[in-house]
Amino acid sequence: MPTCEGPSTVVFDQALAEYDFGPSHPMSPLRVDLTMRLATALGVVGPGATSGLRLAAAPVASNDLIATVHDPRLIEAVERAGRTVAPDERHGLGTDDNPVFRDMHRAAAHVVGASVEAFRQVWAGEVLHAANITGGLHHAMPDRAAGFCIYNDVAVGIKHLLDNGAERVAYVDIDVHHGDGVERVFWDDPRVLTISLHETGQMLFPGTGFAEDVGGREAQGYAVNLALPPGTSDAGWLRAFHAVVPPLLREFDPQVLVTQHGCDSHAQDPLAHLMLSIDGQRAAYLALHDLAHEVAGGRWVVTGGGGYALVEVVPRAWTHLLAIVGGAPLDPATETPGEWREHVKERLERTAPSLMTDGRTPAYRDWREGYDPDTWLDRAIHATRMATFPLHGLDPMP
C-alpha cells in the first residue's frame, strides 16, 4: 500500500481553459480563471503560497487512456467534430449542452490527463491530497457526451486506480446534479462505492439517481443515491450528508477517497434549486477532508464539477476547497483581495464579493436524534438508508 508524507498538489495550467463551449454557454472557463486568480492572491497557490499546496503540470491524456472507459467510436467522433465543427448528436455532440468547438478532443483530453495525474500522484504515494478543479465531468457516458461533459475524467481516474492495484475506491459526488456517468461506469463493480447527493431528478437534469438505484446484480448497495428536495439549505444538506456518507465510508473502508465538488448547490446558482451558502459548502469540504484521513489514510483526490455563478460563488467555494486540500483552511471572514475584485470589475464590469463568507454558521440536527416522516428531506434520507444500509450490514434506523 503506497504511503506518503509529501505535499499536496493542484494539477493545473492555463491551457485547461481551452475547454470552452463558447461565450453564451453557462460553463465558462472564466470560473476557473477567477478561482486560480483568487487562490493565488490569497496565497493558497503560487509562489507566495502559505499552504502545502504546490502546482503540478497537467498532461494531455492519450487516446488509449481515455479508451479505458470510453468507446473508441466516441473518441473518433470527438476528434472529427473538433476538426469539422459539425454536430454528431448520436454521440451527444452539437447539442445545446455540448456544442462542438475547434480542437475539442484535445481540450477534453487535457482535462482527463490532469485528473489522472492527480490520481496517479496520490496512488504512487507522492502526495496525500491532489486536486484538479477543471475536472469532475461526471455526466459523460462511455459512448456519448452529456451534460457539459465530453469525457468522464473521474471515471478514467478511478479506472486507473483499479488497473494499478486498488481494491476499494470510494467516490462521493456533492454536485447538485446526479453523478450518473461515474455511477454507470461502475454500476456492476463492487470495488467502487459511488455516493451521490443531489437535487432530486424529479426537478433537475439528468432525471435519475433515486434511493432505489443501488447498483447492478453483482454490486448491490455500491451505488448510493440521496435525492434532495428543492430548497434544501445548509442545515438540511449537512443533516443528509452526515446521516448517509460517514457510516457507509467507514463500513466500505476505501483505500482512496475521490470527491467531486460541483458548487452549483449554492442558493445563487442559476441552474438549480438548492439553497446552500459558501459556508455550508466549506463545511462539506472539511468533512470530506476529515473522512479521507479517517477511512483512507488521507489519500484524497479532489475534482471540481458544476457551478455557474461565475463571480459570486465558484471562485470563493473552490478557493476554500484548495486551501483545505493544501492543509491551511482559510478563515471564512477573510477579505477577498482588492486586486482580485478590481480584476473582476475591469474584466466583467461586475462587483465581486468582498468576503470569503456568506455570513452563515452551518449547523444541523444529527440523524440519531430521530427523523420526521412528515418532511420531504427526512423521507429522502430514510429512503436512502433503508435501500442501502442493510446491503452493507448497517442498521438503517436512527
Q: Layout of SSEs?
A:
Elements: E1 8-11, H1 30-41, E2 53-56, H2 63-66, H3 72-84, H4 104-123, E3 129-132, H5 153-163, E4 169-173, H6 180-185, E5 192-199, E6 223-228, H7 234-252, E7 256-260, H8 278-295, E8 300-303, H9 314-325, H10 338-348, H11 376-388
Parallel strand pairs: 1-2, 1-3, 3-8, 4-5, 4-7, 5-6, 7-8
In words, what does this structure look like?
With 398 residues, this protein is an alpha/beta fold. The chain has one domain: Arginase, Chain A. Helix content is 35%, strand content 10%. It is built from 11 helices and 8 strands. The chain has helices at residues 30-41, 63-66, 72-84, 104-123, 153-163, 180-185, 234-252, 278-295, 314-325, 338-348, 376-388, and strands spanning 8-11, 53-56, 129-132, 169-173, 192-199, 223-228, 256-260, 300-303. The protein has an 8-stranded parallel β-sheet with strand order 2-1-3-8-7-4-5-6, sandwiched between helices. Helix 6 links the parallel strand 4 and strand 5. Helix 4 (104-123) packs parallel to helix 5 and helix 7 packs parallel to helix 11. The longest helix is centred in the first third of the chain and has 20 residues, at 104-123. The protein is globular and about 50 Å long. The relative contact order is 0.14.
